[in-house]
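Might I ask for a little of your time on a matter of protein folding? The record follows directly beneath this note:
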Amino acid sequence: MTPGELALASGNHTPVTKFILQGFSNYPDLQELLFGAILLIYAITVVGNLGMMALIFTDSHLQSPMYFFLGVLSFLDICYSSVVTPKLLVNFLVSDKSISFEGCVVQLAFFVVHVTAESFLLASMAYDRFMAICQPLHYGSIMTRGTCLLLIAASYAFGGANSAIQTGNVFALPFCGPNQLTHYYCDVLPLLHLACANTATARVVLYVFSALVTLLPAAVILTSYCLVLVAIGRMRSVAGREKALSTCASHFLAIAIFYGTVVFTYVQPHGSTNNTNGQVVSV
């Protein structure tokens, strides 16, 4: 039984008004070191992505769809990092590591919105590379600014829908006892572990929709890049091959890291494995 189910069985029906974020609390002697390391990573993330956005949107030579998508990707990275990291940094320095119930709802909702939107944005970027390399004669007429904006709007629409489903799926459950989250932010699996009800259906909903928003974009990405690799293999020019591969290599690495961590955290059907591993993968 989960801690929430144990609380319900014992007759504790006190509504939870806040949660205690216990992420990395097992390392009290390393709090300052972890604060410095996470602060450095966060600062590099924000400054690097802001610089990328400023460069892309001010340089007239970087107005192609590829760079436009890259600018939006930088914006998404800043957004979902900023949903979680400031609170994490504060918790390294204070003894009260609580977050209000409402704050937890908002944090989870915004986090899921931006992570899901990034998943679909990466698929859009793969489709852009497919059009540029495999259909170069039609690229300019298809990948217009309107098409790019439509793909970005669709990414956020999927993000909003998934966020509403996942957040509603979690907080429709009662929380009536333990409130100590074994994580450094409000995430779905640790919250389900505290719910004072049977969470089997909620876990199925989590896995199904996490798989959908992961595997559908991944299918688009894999299909696009398979066709891209076939097209590159047919190129006679060595310089052309190198240029095509160079525009795809870093994108493919980012995709591998992003989807690898998402699948490890949300899609594989396990309950609660090693909490420390989950926190490290989330970082």
The chain is about 75% helix and 5% strand. The CA atoms of residues 137 and 159 lie 32 Å apart. The mean pLDDT is 86.
